[in-house]
Amino acid sequence: MNWLKWLLLALAAVTLIWFFNQEKPLQVTWQHPDIGSVETIVANTRSGTVESCQRAKMSFAIGGQIEKIHVVEGELVKQGDLLMTLWQQDRLARVSEAQALIQSRIQQQKSICINAVNDKKTVKRYQRLLNQKLIAQETLDNALAKADASAAACLSAKSEVDVAKALKQTAKASLAQTELYAPFDGMVAEITGELGEFATPSPTGIVMPPAIDILTHDCHYVTAPIDEVDAGQLSVGMPVKITIDAYEQQQFSGTIQRISPYVQDYAKQARTVDVDVSFDNSTLTNVSQLLTGYSTDIAITVAKIDQTLRLPSELIVDEKYVYILDNEDVIRKKEIETGLSNWQFTQVTSGLSSQDKVISSLAISGLKDGQVAIAEQESAQAN
Description:
Number of strands: 22
Oligomer: single chain
Order of helices and strands: HEEEEEEEHHEEEEEHEEEEEEEEEE
Strand order of the largest sheet: 3-12-15-14-13-16
Largest sheet: 6 strands, antiparallel, barrel
């Protein structure tokens, strides 16, 4: 009987080994491919920036003492408004001097030209007297010479007036170097310097802070770098989705307005092409204030197809395979063909139908072709 006991123990051991070596069904989740839109998207490589449509960092062309600051930071100004003035009494005196010189030259011109007119009349009188043989030819010749000289003097006097006016323009141009005017409608962003301080212009090759920084507060655009590999797909007018870190819950729409005609080549950085994107103003209605310098990201829609069979991109293995669950609850690896794709969705052009059960739990251990599975639940489909 001992042999029977050992036989039963051996059978039990074999049974246990067989049981524990059997592959247990995997618990998986799955979902059907759905119908929707798929876009091919190009995104920026580094953070983009919100820029003002116009911005001027203004400095004086000459050095001088700040005499008056006519605006404050944050003030809205109109084009042509005076912003800052240097000490200018000497230049104002030169303008007044030039104006006085003009008046003097005008009076001199009047005097000389009156004499020229009179000399011309004298020539006519002498001509009549000569015809009557009451004077000699020499007298008429002298009168003619004097009239010509007077006419030339009159023209010279007119030129002297023009010279005086030019001197006044020069004096005014010199005066203008002591004044800063708003080049466009905008907001004063920053003022450098205080009353009585000395404003210094920037020497060549040395960057100095601007006296006044002015920018548009109600007109902005986004500039962002795009990898040179993707730049060839872009064209002006393409639609863009914009996200701003300061408004992370909102998405803005825009359009490509400009593509840089050259590639930026920075040391130790990828070569990129700058793209300027204008905002669709209708998407800015809920923004209290868009500030220049905000960091942004852009997604440019290069191509789009609607009402197509699609899958979440993360369910596709090696860009051409998916795992599906057949009618016998066995996992099968299936090859598919894809079309447009982005980080969220990929278009399926062949190899699947909307009724196929595509495995969505790809991260589980033991997932392979031919593995028996238990469908735990259908995972939620992304919008």
